[in-house]
TrEMBL record:
Gene3D superfamilies: Phosphorylase Kinase, domain 1, Transferase(Phosphotransferase) domain 1. SUPFAM superfamilies: Protein kinase-like (PK-like). This is Protein kinase domain-containing protein. The lineage of its organism: Eukaryota, Metazoa, Chordata, Craniata, Vertebrata. InterPro entries: Kinase-like_dom_sf. It comes from Electrophorus voltai.
């Protein structure tokens, strides 16, 4: 669990590796899992004024488009 909380992405366990831990077996649905796109860390260390960070964050939120995932038959979990 501690390896998932490491801030340094080079030392932190990947999501793929974390999903292999026994604590997540009951929550996994391997047929629905896909590899995530690598995170772009280039902006993280930029020395920007606060207003520019706010603008950047707001723009990121507005432009976010979640990937479309094809609905599949539920496993009896419909409401």
């Amino acid at each position: 669990m501690e390896k998932m909380l490491v801030l340094d992405p080079d030392r932190r366990v990947s999501a793929t590796m974390a999903l292999e831990l026994s604590m997540f077996f009951e929550f996994r649905e391997p047929e629905e899992e896909m590899e995530a796109m690598p995170y772009d860390h280039s902006i993280d260390n930029a020395d920007l004024p606060l207003e520019q960070w706010k603008r950047h964050t707001f723009t990121e939120i507005l432009s976010f488009q979640p990937p479309f995932i094809e609905p599949r038959d539920s496993k009896g979990t419909s409401v």
